[in-house]
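Box 3.1 A note on notation
Throughout this textbook, protein chains are presented in two layers. The first layer is the amino acid sequence; the second is a token string describing backbone geometry. Keep the layers aligned when reading.
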Amino acid sequence: MGFDTIELGHGLQAPAVASLLRAQEKMGFRVSSVHNFCPLPPEVMTDHPDCYEFTSHREEDRRRAVRLTRQTIDMAERFGARFVVIHAGRVRTLSYTGQLRKLMEEGHVRNKAFGRIKLEAVQKREEVGETYVQRALDCLAEIADYAGEKGITLGIENRDDYEAVPSEREMANFLRRLDSKNAVYWHDFGHAQIKHNLSLLSHEQWLDKMGAQVGGCHVHDVKWPFSDHQAPFTGEVKFEELVPKLPKECLFVFEMNPRVPKEQVLAAAERWRTTFSQ
């Protein structure tokens, strides 16, 4: 398909990763980034990037997440990758995103119930969020130091649910508190667009604020309201307006559903090159 660089996903089991190492030696492709956890923990049978979280109330789970992330960093070093993409965790005691999505899908996005639930979500998040943020920071401080020793940068990814840590309101301060030159913001266009559709943020204003701190991106589109991982330029994301807000050296990784037709992938790649290569 004309690509010479890939990202390794979080669903790869150890034998598949070993096969890719051998294939890289023979074929010479490059690896831009590796998504935590890679390889998949042996005790986890299905693709589940949040099987262990830095925000867990269980200390043993947090320590397991740290150990697995160090292994991912080691794997990134072996492949010659620059980035490890990180899910920092979530507030497991809250569950509002599903309610908001359901109301929107039923056409109630502008009614009082939607506004009431959104306000309650914000208030509850403000009450309990710091405990989870601090847990994540404690884990990531150790991991960032280790990544620096290996020449790897951590990309802290935005997520598509309001329970994620850090939230957009927390992200800038989260990176300041982490205080590591080995950690940057990793922007997922689809996740941000879903929150935009839920009226939880403005995609454009968010990148006005955080664009300069973006080290890399997951590129995929969203068909209204929540069908993400579509080929770029086939949905709601206004790439032509958003991409110029990012650094010129930013890494862009296409992250599409495997069911997206090859022809759409190739068309999106060609349009991306002609639109943004100047």
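Residues 112-150 form the longest helix (39 residues). The chain has one domain: 5-88+129-276.
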